[in-house]
Amino acid sequence: MAAVASAPSVSSAPWWQRAVPHVLAVLFFVVLACAYFAPIMFDGKTLAQHDITQFQGGAHEAQEYAKVMGKEALWTNSMFSGMPTYLISLHFPGDWSGYLQKAMTLGLPAVVANLFLALLCGYILLVALGVRPLIAVAGAVALGFSSYNLAILAAGHNTKSLALAYAPLVLGGLLVTYRRDKWLGAALFAVGLTLNVHVNHLQITYYLLLLVAIFGIIELVSAVRAGRLPEFAKRTALLALGAALAVGVSFGRLYTTAEYSKYSNRGPSELKSAAPTAPGQAPAANPEDAGSGVDRDYAFQYSYGVGETITLLIPNFYGGASSMPLGTDSNLAKAGLPQEYLGSMPTYWGQQSYTAGPVYMGAVVCFLFILGLFVVEKRTRYWLLAGTVLSILLAWGKNFETFNYLIFDLLPGYNKFRAVSMALVIAQLAMPILGALALSRILRPRLAAAPTLPGTKVPLSAEASALLPKVLYAGAIAAGLCVLAYLASFSFDFAAPVDGELTKQGFTPQLLGALRADRADLLRNDVWRGLLFIGAALGVLYFHLKGQLKVMPAAAIMVVLVLVDLWGVDKRYLGDNKFQRETIAEEFQPSPADQLILQDKDLSYRVLNVQNPFNEAQTSYFHKSIGGYHGAKLRRYQDLIERQISNNNQQVLNMLNMRYLITGDAKQPVQRNPGALGNAWFVSEVKPVASPDAEMAALSTISPATEAVVDASKFPQQKAATYDIAGSNIALTNYSPDELKYRYNATQAGLVVFSEIYYADGWQAFIDGKPVPHIRADYVLRALQVPAGAHTIEFKFEPKSYAVGNTVSLVASIALLLVLVGTGVYVARRRERSGDELLNDAPVLA
Q1: Distances (CA, A) of 545 to 6, 148, 459, 548, 559
Q2: What pLDDT is recorded for position 703?
Q3: In Å, how far are 278, 279, 287, 427, 590 from 283, measured between CA atoms?
Q4: What is the pLDDT of residue 832?
Q5: How do strand 729-736 and strand 721-722 relate by DSSP bridges?
Q6: What is the structure's pLDDT at 460?
Q7: Which positions ≥6 away from 826 have C-beta within 8 Å?
Q8: Strands 729-736, 739-746: parallel, antiparallel or unpaired by DSSP?
Q9: To 5 degrees, how large is the angle CA 348–CA 349–CA 351?
Q10: Distance between CA atoms of residues 777 and 652, nearest Å
Q11: Is residue 141 a contact partner of residue 131, using CB atoms and an 8 Å limit?
Q12: Beta-carbon count within 10 A of 509 CB
């Protein structure tokens, strides 16, 4: 590691004086977050987040149950005829990390708190690495205001945002453990990873751990070369203990998720035959060819274009978001397009089917990142460069299939995720960190080469003389990329796939040409914008190294440049037009159709909204829905949707107890289905089949009111049988999401089918209080062999995974609390013993 000059020690100052810069930084972050989300903080508005609205619809039943009963609902019937709440809305009392999150957010409302946490955690990372506070603020702003952070909040991906916000804590702990204090670093790593895992966005955690793995490989090679392998092993072991603790705190959530994943649509179908397709449609992939993860085409549906990588530097290179507002001075306006259409025009002309906005790192950040490749310590620069390159390659997805298909098939767990463009979050972490370390390397108090007489020019120090050419090289490269992009733009036609649709809708050749001219203007204007910011940042560093600008004003100017650069682009995708006065509760006002259905006070029945049924949760807010909105529904239910419900199999809808149909027709908004079979019924015949495919095929021909089909390969105890069901009856007497009670009277023993989704890990059946086994019938439903006479049946959802997981989470939470207390004692004693800062402000990584 290169020796560096340290700043004058401030250890003699009282602790409160040393804390002042950090307190001011935190207050600055609060001001920034509140200012960006001023409509929420000062105007009483909310952010219109599509996914959060959908979440509220799907979670409503479970949340209301928890509010009334004082305990969690582990199952809900509000979506897809029934599913666990593990990935919808479930609290684990044993996981105490939520209290730590609340403390860190200072009571700020959601989304405001997300941005604040991103800034705070970025700052903690950089201060832990010895970066001076004001420079750490610049790095934190670069991390927090990356355009993707704000774009995902606009979409409602709050958990993704939080997982990204906590990532710098994990990286900070990693670096401090290996490069500085192993005990403090391991504690920071454990806390950061605990919070990151707690928010339950495993794809972000996966990408973060890829960056951690790259660091570990580079550090291992360095340790072997330097003969430090035993010390490396000790520090690695400490981090492994921290990781185990983090997993332990969220073990309940991880355990139930792992259990559910076996049954979700993120796993393969049990069906061997391909689903039938409509005439002219490409045949579906054979499920037998699928692995244990998602389908490859599905995973790579959102792949970043190879050329789109330049948006890291030039945000509007491909037109920005799928639709963007154009002003009255635009080419389209001059061509005569009415002003009311200018608010949302298809400016994007890249390869993606949809984008909420490009991933923009910032022109200043890109310049500093390039500078970091010249001036930051080798191990660190190689790590962050490798992470950035891997991030870009993974994000290309199907556009670099030779590499990415291999990774998809071989990298453990990678095939569980979709939207590979999200891999750019690795670069989103790596580039600002390297940029901040580069800035720290340049903006450091240094002595001149020799004393000078008053009034004479101060000569450059040897260090400044060595750094100045590197700053100029980095600036030339960053500016050169902008110039090349500008020149290349004259060879583009700026045509987009959507242009054909515009022509069909009446866009004249003149209007289409004007739109393409606007796309060109968006690109070229952002090139000039980038050159301006790069030039300004280059000037700051140049004059500092020339001795004409001191450290503090130079750092302050860099903070402003980074902030203004990113803020301006962020507002394109999360601007004031994204806020509304309407609250979530006000969005869920019952429609006339809902009001008609809610007059039916029966305990349980289902509703199908034919308007986009499997991508909306508005219906789920008021009713038990056949459809819903969730990325991980049960695999068997997805099979049922694809092969039966989508083919309008009325008998299948009857067996799911679909009593009402919301039509979307103002004249007849609701239709009642007289064929709905109710909550449970006796069948007169049981037909065993040999496979899941045969079971699914049988649903196309059987009458579920009298017949039940059972897969004998899964339930060999159920034989073919016929029953006399005359005089037998059954009724639901009590309903709650995870407990159902029935009363029946049977003239002879028989089989009862329930219009409830079968889920093996948790649902228990009881007859007169005694546990009895139940089976699956009709591919997705529960069925139970019952004796003759009058009896009571109960179904209770009591998954062992929740109970065991919650207990482990509680034990780990207590352990984490002890670690935090122990770390506080360790820090206090070390300060007493050494009398100095535990982590001083000498930038050891530069």
Answers
A1: 17, 33, 10, 7, 18
A2: 95
A3: 9, 10, 12, 37, 40
A4: 67
A5: unpaired
A6: 67
A7: 183, 184
A8: antiparallel
A9: 110
A10: 12
A11: no
A12: 8
Q: Which residues of 428-450 are buried (b: 16+ CB within 10 A; e: fewer)?
A: bbbbbbbbbbbbbbbbbebeeee
pLDDT of the residue at 812: 96
Residue identified by tokens 């500078």 is 371
In the block, tokens 């750092």 appear at 555
All domains in the chain, ordered by first residue: 50-93+589-676 (no CATH), 291-316+338-442+461-546 (no CATH), 680-798 (2.60.40)
Identify whether the C-beta of residue 372 lies closer than 8 Å to the C-beta of residue 477. no
**For residue 770, with 0-12 CB atoms within 10 Å meaning exposed, 13-18 middle and 19 or more buried, which class applies?**
exposed
What is the spatial distance between Cα 675 and Cα 686, in angstroms, rounded to a whole number? 20
Type and span of the H or E element at 757: strand 750-757
Residue 542 confidence (pLDDT): 96
Q: What's the rounded Cα separation, in Å, for the pair 82 and 482? A: 53
Which residue type is seen at 713? S
CB proximity list for 795: less than 8 A, separation 6 or greater: 739, 740, 754, 756, 763, 764, 765, 766, 774, 782
Q: Which of 128, 552, 142 is nearest to 372 (CA)?
A: 142
Q: What is the mean pLDDT of each run of 10 residues along the chain (846 residues)?
A: 39 70 96 95 86 86 92 94 92 93 93 96 93 96 95 89 96 93 93 95 95 96 93 95 96 93 85 62 41 75 93 96 91 90 92 90 98 94 96 96 92 88 96 97 67 53 88 97 96 93 89 95 97 98 93 96 97 89 75 93 94 89 93 92 93 97 90 96 96 95 96 93 93 96 96 96 96 97 96 96 96 95 85 54 43
